[in-house]
TrEMBL record:
Keyword annotations of the record: Membrane, Transmembrane, Transmembrane helix
The organism of origin for this protein: Longilinea arvoryzae
Full protein name: Uncharacterized protein
Domain of life: Bacteria
Transmembrane portions of the chain: 145-164, 171-187, 199-217, 229-251, 257-278, 287-306, 326-346
Amino acid sequence: MNASRWLEGLGSLYRGLLRLYPAPFQQRFGAEMTQVFDTLCRQEYTAAGADGALQLGLLALADGLHSVVQQWWIRIFQRRPAMEITSSDLHSGVSPLSPFQAGLAGLPFAAFGLANIVERLLPFPVIAAPPGLLGLAQIVLRSPYLWFGIFCLIGLGIGLAKGFPRWTASYLGWSVLFCWWWSNLAANAERWDEKVWRALPGVVLLAMLLLAVLLRRSWRPLRDILRSLWQDWTLASFAVFTFFAFIFVVYDENHHPLLLLFIGTSALIASAGVWAYFRLKSSIPRVLALAASLLVMAVLSTWSYATWDYRAYYNLPAGPTVEWQTVWTTLVVAAVMLVPALAAWLRRRAHRAAPG
């Protein structure tokens, strides 16, 4: 095989490797890297023959594969998101949101409380909807929970279009939670999990994500989500908070005379905790704000059961007037929520201590 074929084969392999890099990297460095590789291969072929050129090419390809992985990692997890994250995030923590943006983050929690109150005020529950299209229409028109889910999906779509600002995490969490919850809905004494409707909420959520990808003609919306999770580990704590706030606000099977007051107060407390979480700068105080909000809601829940004779309502045997298991469980949950915050704090300390 003559020199030109050797060099042409190595050049083709290297240009194929360059196509694996992120597009901006290819546009900026592709031509220069190809030129340097071709020049070095020609020089090595002249000095050491085909064996030398082959050895150089294999080393360059191996190094290039490692560099491809590194460049994609940087692009997905370390690229600066729009408007909110600064270059010093790993050293100083995530920047707090403005009062308005923090209010946007807390809005789904208040909206869920409102939906729950409206649901309790309906004269006929959705669960009694008739079968067929008529029943489906009634569910769509008369279910405040469904409209709440649509509201969360719209908020998520707006956030994805804007580069996934931090307040969008609230709408993403509620959208995922709503899809899980709604897939277990029962109507007309039939469980939806035996029908195609079980998959419908998840399909709608996936369609929303796919639509964002298509409209922006890139995978950036999904990368924005992954990058936000990597940059702010306390979002894991926020996800735990969202689930337990849902439990505390829904007051399932509760018939306290002041039930609507308990629901509304719990929803406002959850919203206040979220507002403080997104307004504070340091990771540990942020999670402590969420934990405090959960603890207050747990006390409210205990108070609700202590002042309502639920045992007589459900024909249960007599027992203690006040049960504090909910509060103790919430304290354990709060301790678990602090783990990502402590890990983020240790990470920032390590970066501060690193030279340079």
